[in-house]
């Protein structure tokens, strides 16, 4: 990691959080209750009930409806952005220009031109830290799997497959979200993490994408311009083939899985989405309780990634996850969606 020419932070990092929805509330609770070296002094959301919760339950003193007012009035060192995706570029740009460090959840945005202008702003402030929210890199199972791959224990990677299937129980929540804001489509919304993992594991870049989508399990999603299932094939510049599968129809729970097929062995992460180690033997047969949300599956990873952000500020280090990683993942996911929309193979330019 690059050392920054900056004074290392010795006092607690003063943080403001923007967005208190499903994921934002999780980050807020982690920041106030578990993460070391931080003082959460302000929160911003459009929902007054969420702000009341942040004040009453988490003890966050200052609350705002406008993120610019929060940044201008709260004497912050850093912001954690968990707002709807289309607002990420403008919020990041404003915070960076205000001299703050920024943690921004994925995706970086939906419009590539806006994201590139955001990246330009980030590069204009090399003494500030920007970190993108690819939390699966912080999950201990993925880290262990990557160590096995890096040590050559399964040979050379031949093929990878990434699953991201939400439970059916979350369908109504997704419809509400997608009706109010642009999700970016199934590949940007669901599979951008898989894209990042494939790049991370292989050290290769996709050069071609072919995508397909369907609404067999949820035909009414077509009314809001969404697809329930997306499948994309990626050809990597080093010869690896990869498949992305995103969906919202898992009856059993939250299915997040990664398969790596090597020339001398295979490995799978999350093949069975077990809630715990309990097996139930009953009149219904033999069953194991399953995880029901991505938040529960990756709670520790969400915690560790933000702790890393705070630690990087304290140490004056840039993170391993860069804005370029976020841009590449977004371009690749959008190429998959373009292929699905046009029915054509899409070439993915490098850089």
Walkthrough of the structure:
This protein has 351 residues and is of the alpha/beta class. It has two domains: 13-128, NAD(P)-binding Rossmann-like Domain (Rossmann fold); 139-294 and 330-347, Dihydrodipicolinate Reductase, domain 2. Helix content is 37%, strand content 25%. The chain has helices spanning 22-33, 48-58, 67-73, 88-97, 112-123, 140-150, 171-180, 186-190, 192-202, 294-297, 299-315, 323-342; strands spanning 13-18, 38-44, 62-64, 78-81, 101-105, 130-133, 157-167, 206-214, 229-236, 241-250, 255-262, 265-269, 280-282, 285-287, 346-347. The longest helix is centred in the last third of the chain and has 20 residues, at 323-342. The chain is globular and about 55 Å long. The model is unreliable at 1-5 (pLDDT under 50).
Distance between the termini: 21 Å
Say what the CATH topology of the largest domain is.
Answer: Dihydrodipicolinate Reductase, domain 2
Look at the structure and name the CATH superfamily of the largest domain.
Dihydrodipicolinate Reductase, domain 2
- Count of alpha and pi helical runs: 12
Quaternary class? single chain
**In one word, what is the shape?**
globular
Any low-confidence stretches, pLDDT <50, length ≥5?
Answer: 1-5
Q: Helix/strand/pairing class, anyone?
A: alpha/beta
Computed CA radius of gyration, to the nearest angstrom: 20 Å
Beta-strand content bin: 25-35%
Mean pLDDT, to the nearest integer, reads 94
Task: Provide a quick synopsis of the model.
The protein has 351 residues and is an alpha/beta fold. Helix content is 37%, strand content 25%. The chain has a seven-stranded mixed beta sheet with strand order 12-11-7-10-9-8-15. The protein has a six-stranded parallel beta sheet with strand order 3-2-1-4-5-6, sandwiched between helices. A two-stranded antiparallel ribbon has the order 13-14.
